[in-house]
Each structure stands twice: as C-alpha cells, then as structure tokens.
Write a structure and sequence with these properties.
This protein is an alpha+beta fold. Helix content is about 50%, strand content about 20%. Strands 1, 3, 4, 5, 6, 7, 8, 9, 13 and 14 form a 10-stranded mixed sheet that branches. A two-stranded antiparallel ribbon has the order 2-12. Strands 10-11 form a two-stranded antiparallel sheet.
Length: about 400
C-alpha cells in the first residue's frame, strides 16, 4: 500500500511537471508575442524631430531629419538596452496616394514582424514589402515605386496607430535599391524618368526621392527595448549623452507590465524547483523508513556474502523503478491536463488576445523523456542517503535490530 501511494505521489508530481513545462512554453511564446506588440520602451530620434506619442511606441512620425546608423553600436553597448531596432521613414506617393515607406532590419526588429497577420512563407527578400492593415494592396499585388516593382508579401493586423497602419514596410536593402545611382542625372530614377505614381521624397523632405535618392547609412529613429531589470531613468540618461539625440518615452505602464510579467515567469520557475526539492526530501524520509524496516533482511544478505555496493544498487534500483513507473503514469495524467487546458483556459486566453502555441513535437518528446528520467532520478536521489547509511553498518548489527 505504501508503494502504491508512493507511485501515485510521483505520478501527480511528474504529470504536473510535464503539463507545467509544456504549458509554460506555450504561454511563454504567447505572452512574448503579446508583449512584443506593446512596441518599444524608448525611441532615440534626431533632436529636431517632432514626435507624436501613441499608446504603443511602434514607430515615429514621418520626418526628414536623420542620424548616423553607426549609433546602433553605441546604443547596444548601454547597460539595460536589450535591442536597438533602426527604422528609416520616407514619405512617398504610390499611385497618386501619399504613403510612408518604413525601412527596418528584420534581424533585430521587434515592433513590425509581431503584427504580421498573413505572410508568404520565407524571409523578407529584396523587392518585397509588407503592407500595413489600412494600406492599399493585397497579398501578391505589385506596387510601382520609382520605376521599380515591389511585391506585397505580407499584411499586418490593425494596431490602432495611424502612421503604422497606413505604411509599407521593407528592408533597408530594398529601400536602397529604389534610389538611383549616384551618377544618375537629375530627373532620372533608378529605372528611367519619374512617372506618375512613383515615390517622391528627398533627404530634406522637400525634393524628389526618386531623382535624388537616399544618403546611405542614415536612419530616422532607433526603437529601444529594455531588459526586465533595467532602470528606465538610468538608460534615458545614458542615451541622452549621445550627440544629437532626443529620447522619446513610450507608455510607462506597458514597460512596467513587461518587466513584471518576466519577473512572474521567473518566480514560477523558481517555485516549481522548490516543489521538486521538497518532494525529494519527502521521498528520502519515506525510503529511510522502508530501509529501516528491512534491516534484518539486508543483514542476512550481507552475511551470506552480498557486498555493500550490491545492497546499495538494489535499494536504488527499487526506488528508481517505483518512481519511474509513477512517472510513466504521470505522462498520461499530464497529457489529460494539457487537453483539458486547451479546451478551457486556452480558449479563454485566446479571447483575451494571448495566442496559444503548442511546442514542436520534438520538444514534447524531450519533455516526456525528461519527465521519465527525472522521476527515476528523483527516487534514486531520495533513497541514496538511507542506502548509503545502511551499507556502512555491520551485518550482525542489522540482524540484531529489534523488529520494526
């Protein structure tokens, strides 16, 4: 009966651990996607830029002022900054409509790609563009810009930020490819004379982008995301020391929410580790009682020639077998918990806008194997100290132990 209850206890622990691991990964991915949609914590812009603050700091207002892209290294070196995502904003006309082209770096971006609603599979290639939710163009459409063609490869979901929803997003390489060569005569675009519907914007915001092109190595803004433990005032002070830069602060409550949620996830992981440690202590106490009940049998085995190492291996193997079988039953229990969660709380989180992503199958298999191995090691670890104590006792002392 005691062995049965021990197996049930390990089953509950292993099932809860496996289900918690899978659900933690799923919710972490969903929460990370939701937090990414909150935008940046800070924005570094040229000092003369006028910025319209929105609830989510996803981009800045169109501006002709720019700064050196090499400042990215200086910003990334500031303690507390996790990522610095550059953006270049150019006001254009496409088919007679004034729009914004926003160049970004997909490798470090955290404000554009999280809003992707639909996307043609594959990376953002040269000549492809992502349309904002209210920008004209559907998936696969072609846009004429400066005599060249941009293909709409993605569409963003509505954000509620006007300059963001009405813009088109492309890589810095695609934006540079639209500009004419430096030797091109005035009035010539990258593919010939400017035509109606081509983009129009120069460095100062007043000329013709298709004729004059872009100065290389310039950006309109750096969107900054802070690490959870960063102190906002210290980071703002450090960034403000860079020449020609003005700091724009986003919604402070969103930044605090992101940092609090990261701290909460870390605390949950620490609490789970403490629970496993407590279970190991309980198992050690239980196996100590089991070994003491078997002192006479162990003494007889040792008197008949069993070596202390063999006795210890037998006790550890028995403990690992019991808890391992409990772990196998725990996998079935954990799977039932996962299915129940997906049909109840998972649906509720989806209504709140927090997506639920199942981990890859390889990760699920690794989690199941870790649960089985952890269950067996938990039993062996709990029985190690009692087994180590009994192997050092003399056979006659074990045999003469009063009945328990």
């Amino acid at each position: 009966m005691r062995t049965l209850f021990l197996g049930l206890a390990v089953m509950l622990a292993a099932g809860a651990a496996f289900a918690g691991f899978v659900l933690g990964l799923a919710l972490k991915a969903g929460v990370a996607a939701s937090l990414s949609r909150m935008g940046a914590d800070l924005a570094a812009v040229p000092r003369e830029t006028l910025v319209n603050i929105t609830a989510s700091l996803l981009t800045v207002q169109p501006t002709g002022a720019t700064m050196d892209a090499a400042l990215a290294r200086s910003l990334a070196a500031i303690p507390g900054i996790e990522a610095a995502a550059p953006q270049r904003i150019v006001t254009t006309e496409i088919e007679g409509r004034p729009v914004n082209l926003i160049a970004f770096d997909p490798a470090v971006d955290f404000s554009v790609l999280p809003w992707l609603g639909s996307r043609i599979p594959g990376p953002l290639t040269l000549g492809s563009v992502i349309a904002g939710s209210r920008a004209a163009g559907r998936m696969g459409d072609a846009l004429a810009v400066c005599g060249k063609t941009l293909k709409v490869d993605g569409k963003l979901e509505p954000t509620g930020v006007g300059p963001f929803d009405n813009s088109y997003f492309l890589s810095f390489e695609s934006l540079a490819a639209l500009a004419p060569p430096a030797s091109a005569p005035p009035g010539a675009s990258a593919a010939g004379p400017a035509e109606p519907g081509d983009a129009r914007q120069s460095e100062d915001g007043k000329g013709d982008f298709c004729r004059e092109g872009l100065l290389p190595g310039r950006v309109s803004a750096f969107l900054l995301r802070l690490i959870p433990s960063a102190k906002l005032d210290e980071v703002k002070f450090a960034v403000a020391q860079l020449p020609g830069i003005k700091i724009v602060e986003g919604n402070a409550s969103l930044t605090a929410s992101r940092q609090a949620l990261n701290a909460l996830l870390t605390g949950m992981a620490a609490f789970a580790g403490a629970g496993l440690l407590a279970l190991m202590l309980v198992l050690s106490l239980l196996f100590s009682a089991i070994v003491q009940e078997r002192y006479r049998e162990i003494g007889l085995l040792m008197a008949m020639g069993a070596r202390p190492g063999q006795i210890m291996r037998v006790l550890l193997a028995e403990a690992a077998m019991i808890t391992g079988l409990g772990g196998a039953a725990g996998l079935a229990f954990g799977t039932a918990l996962l299915l129940l969660f997906a049909r109840s709380l998972g649906y509720y989180f989806a209504l709140l806008g927090v997506p639920f992503f199942w981990p890859p199958f390889a990760v699920l298999l690794a989690g199941a194997a870790a649960a089985l191995l952890g269950s067996a090691l938990l039993g062996a670890g709990g029985a190690f100290l009692p087994a180590w104590r009994v192997r050092r006792m003399e056979p006659y002392a074990l045999i003469q132990t009063p009945g328990r």
